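Much of the work behind modern protein science is quiet bookkeeping, done one molecule at a time. Below is the pair of lines this work produces for a single protein:

***
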Amino acid sequence: MNSVSFADCGFLRLAVASPELRVGDVDFNLAGISRVVEKAAAQQCQLLVCPELCLTAYSCGDLFFQPLLVKKALRAVTDLAALTAEYDIALVVGAPVHQQGRLFNGAFFLAGGQILGCVPKTYLPNTQEFYEERWFSSALDRTGEEIFLDDCAIPFGPDLLFQAVNKPDCMVGIEICEDAWVSNPPSGEMAGAGATVLLNLSASPEVLGKHSYRQSLVESQSARCLAAYAYASAGPGESSTDLVFSGHSLIAENGVVLAETARFEFDSQLAMADIDVDRLVSERLKNNSYSVARSERVFRVIPFELKGTEKKAAEIWRPLSRTPFVPADDRDRAQRCREIFALQTTALAKRLRHTAASRVVVGISGGLDSTLALLVTVKAFDKLGLDHEGIVAITMPGFGTTRRTRGNAEKLAELLGVTLRVIPIDQAVRQHFADIGHDASLHDVTYENAQARERTQILMNVANQVGGLVIGTGDLSELALGWCTYNADHMSMYGVNSGVPKTLVRYLVDWCALEEFSGETSAVLRDVCETPVSPELLPPGEGDEIRQITEDQVGPYVLHDFFLYHLVRLQSPPKKIYLLACHAFDGEFAPDEIVKWLRIFFRRFFSQQFKRSCLPDGPKVGSVALSPRGDWRMPSDASVNLWLAELESLPL
């Protein structure tokens, strides 16, 4: 697991800091920033952002007119530049800087022992508690594209971007505090010009409600720009003459906050996250709206070397869920279940209204998928004011059906008031074996699939008989793996579960037991949730035990759903999926187990595309969908060799 480097997995380790500071005490502030740099570097940070005017403090007032303060701050910038070479880290700090008789609020980009550029603040707040125009000029008023420090020309302007020569997709854009609060932030143009990492050096005073507003602003700008957005804000060491500063610094990526500092702490605060730069590039490649949103400004690109790319990923500094489709928080999970159930029922209700159908046919097995499909159908009928008798629930016991699953299916149909039909398939399948000359004692794929196709034939013909639609039960995970029989459970007239992954199906049924149903119905639903996932196509074991466990054959669904999310939603390559899975499932699955199931996942995902290419209609409910008419268009004969070769190259 530790053999994969940051460069291999596309991460940038980014940190925001709110250093301990004193107003006007440059030496104290320099020492505090230096300690933060040392601490961040010890944790393999590659890029560190400090607040606006952090070397002097933001709240110096008319002291900004004192040349001694400005000169001292610029000397400290030079000292910090030398520190970046010592600690192999890139650093962005705020300090006042002058050009041709004008004073600017500047952000200095430091790396490799050098001052590579300075970005001045464009928008200067000058209302209520803010008086920045008293001291500073806007970037729009600069008189040249350079400033001079120690006889060295430093690129200067709001048109600077900083690009890592050893990771070109890591392009950094910088804005300062108020720049982000205007209607058209500079960071939008920077993102349009290719910046994937947007930095904001801020000194934002705290008032009631501003904390959540600031977080929403950072989240939305990172989402709008398909970028990482790091916001470093000044802490309570700033002057409290009229204001209080909290030091609320945070890092967001594509609309999600990855890390943030504690507020109102006088000690230096540091928050760190691994930014998935490759993911951001992938999101942009898929988004044609991004491709046409060109920047009108021409930017100067300053190269720098990103240090630490060879370091191994001993740990991942970002939220990493074992179940990306299922929220860990109970309240969030319930809300997601509520919304998905509403999407499913509304979609089916629309189809029923369109076809003027008052009857449907659902095959029920007592398993999770068919139970969810039945519950969705019942609620869709309720939405349309249709009688539950129009729902024809058919249970079709076969060679592998157990008393438990059949009992749950029949009891649930009775409790929900639907029309139940029990149609055993044993005799019909044995006749079919005789017709095609198949030995019934040979429990092979023909033995299994003949049962599945017999059941689908019954469902389709009964649907014709009653003038209704066949409701499909297969879920998203089964479609990804092709774990369905072609032209059997693979087929229906409307697939209500086609957008729901297996790891979420169980929670949806459990949620229904808690919120949508009660009494005996809830008890049956809970027992369904506790039943092992099985197609029940092979005869049960002694004591009527389910002998055919799906996950023993195809692999754990918790892993496959993890693989599916990272492949389809995030476009991650096998090496990266492996790395993330090793971290997410550390202690549960060994690395060689993960590779084994990942290899099976890729083989099945590619080889079974032909089943997805002719799917029936069904609603998309989340960010991952496999409809050939919408989210996933893949040739049925695409080769998997490239993906398997990368797996084989892993140094286990």
User: Anything to note?
Assistant: The chain has 21 helices and 20 strands. Residues 6-304 form a domain with the Nitrilase/N-carbamoyl-D-aminoacid amidohydrolase fold (CATH 3.60.110.10). The chain has two domains: 6-304, 330-648.
